[in-house]
User: What shape does this take?
Amino acid sequence: MEFDDVIHTRRSVHQYSDADIDEETLYDLFEDVRFAPSSFNLQPWEFLVVRGDDLDRLQSVAYGQEHVTDAAAAVVVLGTLDPSDHAERVTRDLLEKGYLPDEEAAEARLDSVEGLANADEETRRVWTVQSCTLATMALMHAAWNRGIASCPMGGYDADAVHEEFDVPADYEPVCLVTLGYPEDEAADIERPRKFRRPADEFVHLDGFDPVARESPATADD
Ligand SMILES: Cc1cc2nc3c(=O)[nH]c(=O)nc-3n(C[C@H](O)[C@H](O)[C@H](O)COP(=O)(O)O)c2cc1C
Assistant: This one.
């Protein structure tokens, strides 16, 4: 698919056909995800792929959302809360390939990562969510590029995800993504797109000038 088409025609899909996604195709998606950018290039993501009967378990922690069991697979995007997980090999690679000038720069970088690793949990949570969210978008684009539809989901009970899937406390469930070949109508690109704010409303060239917000309803409305 052309890049523009991937961007413009992807949409959140709830209705999937019965077709499976074979393992080779699944891995192809994640081969694309590898190239997502990440803070310090630390790639803090893990992807738990849930299939078959286990989708019932995932649905139970996702407030019963129906498309979870309709999908061929669903991905639980998990972000490590420990920035030092891959720091050593990532930094060695930067040094070997000349992205860092010398050993001193490598040590300084490792010190920065260690500083982050010692930060409070909220800071580390924001840190991991930023990179994992970009990887999630990459996953959805990689899927749609192959005709596989998706739906990102924030509607789940994170504590229940930890418990149901034995996810250790130092991994943050960042997002769920259902995946599957869409039912005929479900991803029809002719269907009108949901409302999108115009770019000239949310782009602030050379300075931030907040736009008027829709006024909240009052008791008199
Ligand atoms: C952070 C986030 C959380 C979302 N949570 C859910 C969810 O729990 N269930 C769902 O069906 N869709 C969920 N969505 C999908 C949005 O409803 C959808 O992206 C939005 O309506 C725009 O539609 P489109 O993706 O088809 O363009 C979520 C999307 C995002 C980005």
